[in-house]
Design goal:
Blueprint: H1 2-17, E1 34-41, E2 44-50, H2 57-74, E3 79-90, E4 97-107, E5 110-120, E6 128-138, E7 148-150, H3 151-158
Antiparallel strand pairs: 1-2, 2-6, 3-6, 3-7, 4-5
Helix pairs in contact: 2-3
């Protein structure tokens, strides 16, 4: 019986550490992760990428930039400027904790003192990160500003040479 309980506990701990990888793809209702975009006006989009639980912030941000670059190329633009940027995180775990408690009691001439020690660990897959960008597209030579990106360069560096849509 103890072996079965130990095996069940081990499986429970391992399942808490498992998380699905965050892949670069369009967001679907069933998956809940991926990119989506909304055209605000010609040459201006809001691009959002939602990562899976535990996806690194850098990966989610890069994938939002990659989608913006793909849209720029698809629509015939050379570069884009990020005019607004928002990154949010939900469901963040609180990590390991240690707690100490104590108490005392007196009953019928007897007294006692108790001391407790407890630990807990967050075994969940981690927070869900979403990166949302508002981008404005442009043609020709890109301005030399911090928030301006050359679309083809982003596709090469973040997309690792993947073809554009």
């Amino acid at each position: 019986m103890q072996r079965l309980a130990g095996l069940a506990l081990s499986l429970l701990l391992l399942s808490g550490c498992a998380s699905a990888p965050t892949l670069y793809a369009a967001r679907t209702a069933s998956a809940g992760v991926g990119y989506s975009e909304f055209r605000l006006e010609p040459g201006r989009y809001r691009v959002t990428f939602q990562g899976g639980p535990g996806a690194p912030v850098e990966q989610v941000s890069d994938y939002a930039l990659l989608r913006a670059a793909e849209l720029a190329v698809r629509d015939g633009y050379d570069w884009f400027r990020v005019s607004d940027r928002l990154t949010t995180s939900t469901g963040a775990g609180s990590g390991p904790r240690l707690s100490i408690g104590g108490g005392s009691s007196r009953y019928g001439g007897h007294s006692s003192i108790g001391l407790g020690l407890g630990t807990s660990f967050d075994l969940g897959p981690g927070p869900t990160v979403t990166s949302s960008l508002e981008v404005v597209f442009g043609r020709g030579a890109a301005p030399r500003d911090a928030d301006v990106y050359v679309a083809q360069a982003i596709i090469r560096s973040v997309g690792y040479g993947r073809s554009t849509i």
